[in-house]
Amino acid sequence: MQVKELGHVVLYVRDLAQSRRFYGEILGFPELPGGFPGAAAFSTGRTHHELLLIEVGPDATPIPNGRRVGMYHIGLKVGDTDDELRAALEELQRASVEIVGASDHTVTHSLYLKDPDGNEVELYVDVESADWRSDPALFNAPIKPLRL
Fold it and tell me: Which residues contact 49 (CB under 8 A, 6 or more apart)?
């Protein structure tokens, strides 16, 4: 067996309306019509769904702070250039979304934020000049501060 691609991510959320607004309206992730009660699916059209949100209610256990086992973040590509990443940053700032990090990973330029439930989300663009296929070591290059 060989995995061919990452198909989708499913997140439990406390408040579906709040998370739907974050992923759909603020991040611009296209929401699919229909669905089933208590859930919302999003897709860029690459596959039937790339993100599924399932509401579990306000009493759900929160994500613990600090080092822990589990998901660290999900990465969402928002374009192909730093200009597109700058535009995303401006939109996030207008929506009062807190940026919790910004990194130059050599192969990507990335902004980090948290969704309403505390899941970390990376918004990134690939660095066109970084040919990681020819030089896989680029993926492990030291992380630098992002200068947009």
Answer: 8, 32, 41, 42, 43
24 close to 31: Cβ distance less than 8 angstroms: yes
Q: What is the pLDDT of residues 4-59, one digit of tens each?
A: 999 999 999 999 999 999 999 999 999 999 878 999 999 999 999 999 999 999 99
Task: Dump the DSSP string for 82-107.
Answer: HHHHHHHHHHHHHTTPPEEEEEE-SS
CATH of the domain at 36: 3.10.180.10
Question: Tens digit of pLDDT for each residue in 51-106?
Answer: 999 999 999 999 998 899 999 999 999 999 999 999 999 999 999 999 999 999 99
Q: Print the domain residue range for 104.
A: 73-148
In angstroms, how far apart are the furthest CA atoms of the chain?
A: 49
Based on the fold, state whether residues 90 and 146 are members of the same structural domain. yes
Burial degree of 124 (CB within 10 A; 0-12, 13-18, 19+): buried
The CA distance from 119 to 106, in Å, is 24
Using a 10 angstrom Cβ sphere, with 0-12 exposed, 13-18 middle and 19 or more buried, the burial of residue 41 is buried
Q: 85 and 22, same structural domain?
A: no
